[in-house]
Each structure stands twice: as structure tokens, then as C-alpha cells.
Amino acid sequence: MDNKRGLGFYIHLYKIILTQDLKSKMSYRADFIISTIGMVFTNVSGFITFWILFQNFPSIAGWNYYEMLFLYGFSLLALTPVQCFFDNNWNLRSHIYTGDFIKYCLRPINLFFYYMSEVFDMKGIGQFFFGTGTLYYAWNKLGIPFTLKNLILLIISFISASLFMIALMNLAAATNFWLMGSTFVMIFAFKFKDYARYPVKIFSRVFRFIFTFIIPIAFVAYYPSLFFLKPDEIPPLTYLSPFLGMIFFYISYKVWMKGALSYSGTGS
Amino acid sequence: MDSIIKIDHITKEFKTLNRRVGLKGSFLDLFSRDYKVLKAVNDISMEIKQGEIVGYLGPNGAGKSTTIKMMTGVLEPTCGEILVNGRVPYKNRAKNSENIGVVFGQRSQLWWALPAIESFRILKEIYRIDDKTYKDNLEYFDALVGASDLYYKTVRQMSLGQRTLCDILASFLHNPSVVFLDEPTIGLDVSMKGKIRELIKVLNHERGTTVILTTHDMGDVDALCNRIVIIDKGTILYDNHIENLRKYFGAYRTIRFMFNKHGASKENETVENTMMEIDTLLKEEFSGAKSLSVGMDEKWIDVLLNEDEVPMMKIINCIQERKKIVDMTLQEISTESVIKKIYEGGLE
């Protein structure tokens, strides 16, 4: 008999748990509608800021309007998985604070998986379409050829870019296991996503180093976009980004799990 | 029969910061390395056999929850060894979880916004319960407590009692060999308490499931447990059959007095005042009797005494000389008083 819980088991279980979350969400209809509207506004206002900026500057660090738009669209897309599938990180503080986190420790399945599977944030879907639309528009305007090679490249860069953002949020959330009230660490980390929308070239040498090696936000949109926009300017490190993404994600997973296992719960 | 849980000299230490008082103190704490090691559980050992119901008792902060967390694999003991179903829980947390069920009286593990049946379905997948076992169990639960009315109710809308009932059923769904119940009857009304006790009793009896129960309600202990383990300040004070404990305190009696049918006669003569009056009186008269204590329960005033120290008749005489007794009954010591005595150091 197969005793190991394999990938197939987890995919099946994810569907089941996801369905329950969607059912729960729909039972709070007003909340769902309001948060969707909120997401649209956030995206639209982000775009307007961006547009106003380009009314005044023809280009930023040699990047024109459509190239910047490409970068913007790509960053939105790369932020979708973290928004959709890993949103429960934001609730970690309260789960730990109230002691409710213990319920995740008592099931015979992977703790990280179980925790993350419980929340699917629908707002991410709106972001996905918004990002796709922006990217498609910029892609057309820039006249990038729509080939199979480019499509595969896009998918790979999308996945590795997402992994960086997910890993960053996991690490920020994991601080909750050791620090009480470390929400600010998460807010801080999440703020960095805004820097992902700009070419790293505009920052000083120090920040360029930080955004590449320490808080690798440049991998979320800048380095992947170079493949399509500036093929002659790609630094060698970029080719490694899928592997780096996986390694970074793995590290964040390990840190998160270490925190979770050292968690001692509140007395009852 | 084989032991299902073996605990061998386990200790759990927590490091806590010695906190200072005031804002300045809090600021200094930020840089402090002044840790204090607290032994939540100190060198305890026990063995629990398949099919037992064990009452795990102790005052708040005694180390009950810590022990349970170690048995469920959430916490790692600082030293010592635990085996549950032959496995070390902390090292095989996931595997261990397959064979145990856990209920925390105050926090539900069910999906809040969904009907209970949806939670059961998810658990069916998580524990890979086969269709037949799942269906049989749901029917069986329904036959036991009429649970099918609850299956389709949203957990959020349930009363505390209904939710606890569903949580207990959920913990038995995958036919675990051990179930840990942490204060399952806390905050419940009398009839719901009865229902839940009955359910635990039947499940233990018919399924042979080992049950480890922590509670502050001696009604739970009287209704369910043959064996009790009492822990305080991290060490085990008592581990034996409950009957032995009563024998230990065999010379203890409770006499209940009633001095006024309506509780109070004159304006300032409340039951509380009378109690205090009797307390002072007895303390003066029988200063050698250490176990003597006075309590009250509505209109009744309870005097707990140890006949080895002072004969019962002497106390009755002493009180009768000063006050008119309307009614009086004699009781064996209750489990509650026994446990209270042990917490207060009566076994030393």
C-alpha cells in the first residue's frame, strides 16, 4: 500500500481545500465585492501614477514608456501567485498570537502546505488580468515577436520571478515565529514590490547590490524583462534566475518550517 | 495489554526573559540577556494502556498542556523520551498525527464558515479515510448523539456545545488509537456536558480508543475516569485509580449545616457572614486540626474535617451550642474536595 503522501495527493487535497475556501468566501458576498472593487482601484491608481510620471519624463534611464509599461505589467503578473496562493502569510501573526496556529501542527500533512492552502485570495485574479492586459498592450506596441520561444521564455521568467516574491514574503512572515508583532517586517518587505517596477539601473550602486543579492527584488521584473527588451544588456546572473528562484524559495520554506516547529503555542 | 503511550523521564524547559517593571524597564529588556529557565514539566514518567481513559488533572499552569503538546508532537521535550504508538511524536509528527485525535475545548479546528459535513469531507481526504469507514462513522455518530441535524449547520452558527460535539466527532473520524481532549466540557451547560461525557464513554468503550482528558470539572472525572494523574508545578503528585485516592482521604467528612431556610434572617446576617463566624469559631476551638476548612454553597455551610484530627461530634456540639441548626447532612468527601486537598499539598 502506498503510504507516502505524494504530489498527486497534495494536488488533489489542494483542490478540495481550495473549494472550501471559495465556498466560504462566497458566503461573505459583500466582503468579496468590496475587496474586488478595492483591488481594481489599487491597480488603476497605480497605473495613473505611472502615467502621470511619463507625462513629464520621456524616458527613465533609457527606458521608454512602453518598455516601462512592460516592466510594470510583468511585475503585476509576477506578484499574482504570492497574492493568490500565499496570502495566509498575512494572518500568521494573529494565528500565532491567539494560539490558533496549533491546529495546523496536528494534521498528518505538510505544515507549510496545509497553512498556505487554507486561503486563496481572489483579488489576485483581478491583478492577473490587469497585468496580462498591460503586458499584452506593451508587447504589441514594442513589436516584440510573438514566437513559441518567447512564450516559453515568458512562462519560465514568470515562474522564477514569482518564486522570488513568494520567498521574500515567506521569510518576512517567518519572522513572526520569533518576534511578537512583526507585521511591520512584512509590510516593509511587501513595500519592496514597488521597486520591482523600475529598472535597477536608476538606483545607486549600493541599492543595486541590495536589490540583487540581499532583497532580490530585481529578479521579480527587471532581470526577466531584459530578455525581451534589452537582449544585449543581460547580466550573466539573469540566466541563473530560475535556479536562484528555486533555491531562494527552498531556503524560505526551510526557515518558515523551522520557525513553525519551534513554535510553542500559548498556554490554554 | 500493551502500553500505547510511554513517557520516560521527560522534562521541558522554557527560557523566559526576566522582565523589568515600567517603560524604562521594558526598554532595558530589549538588550537584556537575563534569562530564567522555567521547568514546565519536570522529570515525569507514565505509561498508558490501550483503551484506558486517563484524567489528567492539575491547577492552571501545572504543565498539562505542555505534556499534551509533547505527546502530540508539537513540542520537543528538553530531555527524556516519549513513545506514542511506538513512535517518537516530535520526530514523526505527521505520521503520529495519523493515529491520534486532538480536541481543544476553546478552539475549534473545524472550518469556520462551512457546515460541519464539509469539514468532515476535508478531513476524510487529509486522513485518507476510505468511503466505507467514513460513511459508517457518520451513521454511527448519528446513532449515538443524533448528530445528523448538526452536519448541515454552519460551524460559525453553532452553539459552543454543538461545536465541541462536532470537534470531538471530527477527532474520532479517522479511528485514531488515542484521543487527547483538552478541557472538552469547558463553558458548557449541564445537559451538554452530560451528552459529551456519554459520547466519550461510549466511543472509548466500543472503539477501545484510549482517551486522555484534561479538565477542571470533577464531574468529568467522576463520570469517565478510572485512573487519574495529577500534576502540579511540572511534577506528578498522584497517579493511580481514583478509588485509592478516596481511600486515602477516607477519614475526611463534609458536614453541611443550614442555619436559616431563607439564607438570611436579620439584615446583616448573610450566609457569608455566618460562614466567617463559624470559621473563626472553629479555628479558635480546634487550632490543632489543620485540615479543617469551611466553605459555603448557597444556603449551606460546609465544614470539611479529618476525623483523625478531631471527632465529628465535637464540631457539631461546638456549633450547636452557639447557633440554632435548622438542617444538617453528612457527606463523604467529594472528588472535588480530594483534588483540592492535593493541590493544596494534602498528600505531603
Automatic annotation (TrEMBL), chain A:
Alphabetical keyword list: Membrane, Transmembrane, Transmembrane helix
InterPro entries, A to Z: ABC-2_transporter-like
Pfam families noted in UniProt: ABC2_membrane_6
Source species, domain of life: Bacteria
UniProt signal peptide: none
Chain segments annotated as transmembrane: 32-53, 65-86, 151-171, 177-194, 206-225, 237-256
Coiled coil regions, renumbered to chain: none
Protein name according to UniProt: ABC-2 type transport system permease protein
Source organism phylogeny: Bacteria, Bacillati, Bacillota, Clostridia, Lachnospirales
TrEMBL record, chain B:
Organism from which the protein derives: Mobilisporobacter senegalensis
Gene3D superfamilies per UniProt: P-loop containing nucleotide triphosphate hydrolases
Pfam family for this entry, one: ABC_tran
GO molecular function terms noted in the UniProt entry: ATP binding; ATP hydrolysis activity
Name the record gives this protein: ABC-2 type transport system ATP-binding protein
Keyword terms, alphabetized: ATP-binding, Nucleotide-binding, Transport
PANTHER family xrefs: ABC TRANSPORTER ATP-BINDING PROTEIN, ABC-TRANSPORT PROTEIN, ATP-BINDING COMPONENT
Higher taxonomy: Bacteria, Bacillati, Bacillota, Clostridia, Lachnospirales
InterPro entries, per the entry: AAA+_ATPase, ABC_transporter-like_ATP-bd, ABC_transporter_ATP-binding, P-loop_NTPase
Domain of life: Bacteria
Domain ABC transporter span(s) in chain numbering: 25-258
